[in-house]
From TrEMBL:
It is an enzyme of class 3 (hydrolase). One of its GO terms (molecular function) is 6-phospho-beta-glucosidase activity. PROSITE patterns: GLYCOSYL_HYDROL_F1_2. The lineage of its organism: Bacteria, Bacillati, Bacillota, Bacilli, Bacillales. This is 6-phospho-beta-glucosidase. InterPro entries: GH, GH_1_N_CS, Glyco_hydro_1. NCBIfam families: PRK09852.1 (NF007356).
Length: 490
């Protein structure tokens, strides 16, 4: 009756994860348009502590300047690490590691440059045909995010972003186009990357410039509602195109724990966790949870919902739940009295004295991944996929192209051990893609030197370098992990 599972499933999907806006480059070729991520700058003269500031707040002035072709500022995500021209070389390296899958995203702006066109850009579609064909050559399963912080900038500047209901139709046209085009090449899809991050950075998630919205909470949740409807309609379109395909949601899951046993800390943690899991609750269950009414009332938010919205959401929930996990966060009802965890970009939170901290202030909690897997599986009883997990660090190239990234190996090893523990707990987790399997542009700080990959790219924060790819020590370690199906971690 009961079967204790002590090993990773035989068909477990091992791989790595990327995003087009951080990886591809090639923004000036193939008819690609500008995305919301293409307006972020990097300035090496700006103090390090301010590099992530623009991630949370974008202004009209910054957006307008980014569209000026005479601007002399450096926009790293327009350049990425030039996967656009190196994809065959990079995929061959993934194959050498033994990847079973590769999580990637489509640049919406390669296919619909402005987002509101009636017909797609064939050059962009053909590029992804080539990428998928190259992956197939090595038996690597693509797992594709439709929208990973790369909605067309035009939809933000001309329509006001996802607050505008018209974006549902634009998104569904894009989704239907790629579902039909790649139905024989892609089995696994995700509708929106880290959809719950609309709470923290509405510009890159929703195309919403905060200075346009004196009631920003209203804009965030109205935009989220439109994304929920769009996700359900996209799921419907995907099933009509290929009934065997699987569609998932994707959230950023920063495990939240009470700082103390103070009842106020416990209640505040419940409230914060609900705000985070609200998004996967809706997409996985297909309806708004009971706590929605009070949560929105406390924020003075009144959603505009059309009659058929709730019906389509209920009829087309997602097939699986995917998430990113980098850290946990301690929550207090009285944070002003305690030391904050400054590196926890998503929830902030209180510094946990039991946990070590990365170079960027992220608190490292491998056991929290086991807890997160159990919480999510208990909550949804749907298959889980770990879409992101990794350590950003400064890597040094030694003589002979040696990169001794034992710190990265240690981080990943400790987390993979906890995935195995969760599988023994009974959790159905079918894949793991560590974040940034090849070095690319950091989402939050726009650096290249904040590196996550098994593959080093010779490029500095201002884009200078040869783009040469170099295998790190972790490359060979992860290859052994995959070959042994997670049994050999040392």
């Amino acid at each position: 009756m009961f079967q204790l599972k002590t090993k990773f499933p035989e068909n477990f999907l091992w791989g790595g994860a990327t995003a087009a806006n951080q990886l591809e480059g090639g923004s000036d070729v193939g008819g690609k348009g500008l995305s919301v991520s293409d307006v972020y700058i990097f300035d090496e003269n700006t103090p390090k502590e301010h590099w992530a500031d623009q991630w949370h707040l974008m202004t009209h002035r910054q957006v307008e300047e980014a569209q000026d072709p005479t601007s002399k500022k450096y926009y790293p995500k327009r350049h990425g690490v030039d996967f656009y021209h190196h994809y065959k070389e990079d995929i061959a390296l993934f194959a050498e590691m033994g990847f079973k899958c590769f999580r990637m995203s489509l640049a919406w702006t390669r296919i619909f440059p402005n987002g509101d066109e009636l017909e797609p850009n064939e050059v962009g579609l053909a590029f992804y045909d080539s990428v998928f064909d190259e992956l197939k050559k090595y038996g690597i399963e693509p797992i594709v995010s439709l929208s990973h912080y790369e909605m067309p900038l035009h939809l933000a500047t001309e329509y006001g972003g996802w607050v505008n209901r018209k974006l549902i139709d634009f998104y569904v046209r894009f989704a239907t186009t790629v579902f039909n085009r790649y139905k024989d090449k892609v089995k696994y899809w995700m509708t929106f990357n880290e959809i719950n991050c609309v709470k923290h950075h509405p510009y890159v998630s929703l195309g919403v410039v905060e200075e346009n919205h004196p009631h920003i909470e209203q804009a965030k949740f109205q935009g989220a509602h439109h994304q929920f409807v769009a996700s359900a309609l996209a799921t419907k379109a995907c099933k009509e195109s290929n009934p065997e395909a699987k569609v998932g949601c994707m959230i950023s899951y920063q495990l939240l724990v009470p700082y103390s046993c103070d009842p106020d800390d416990i209640q505040k943690t419940v409230e914060k966790q609900r705000e985070s899991l609200f998004f996967s609750d809706v997409q996985a269950r297909g309806y708004y949870p009971a706590y929605t009414a009070r949560m929105l009332a406390d924020k003075n938010v009144i959603l505009e919902v059309e009659p058929k919205d709730e019906q389509i959401m209920r009829e087309y929930p997602v097939d699986y739940v995917s998430f990113s996990y980098y850290m946990s966060s301690a929550i207090s009802a009285h944070p002003e009295k305690l030391e904050g965890a400054v590196g926890n970009l998503i929830t902030g939170g209180i510094k946990n004295p039991y946990l070590p901290t990365s170079d960027w202030g992220w608190q490292i909690d491998p056991k929290g991944l086991r807890t997160a897997l159990n919480q999510l599986f208990d909550r949804y009883q749907k298959p889980l996929f770990i879409a992101e997990n990794g350590l950003g660090a400064m890597d040094v190239v030694e003589e002979g192209d040696l990169i001794q990234d034992d710190y990265r190996i240690s981080y990943l090893r400790d987390h993979i051990k906890q995935i195995k523990e969760a599988i023994t707990d009974g959790v159905n987790v079918f894949g793991y893609t560590s974040w940034g399997c090849i070095d690319m542009i950091s989402a939050s700080t726009n650096q290249t030197s904040k590196r996550y990959g098994y593959i080093y790219v010779d490029q500095d924060d201002m884009g200078r370098g040869t783009k040469r790819r170099i295998k790190k020590k972790s490359f060979h370690w992860y290859k052994n992990v995959i070959t042994s199906n997670g049994e050999e971690l040392d």
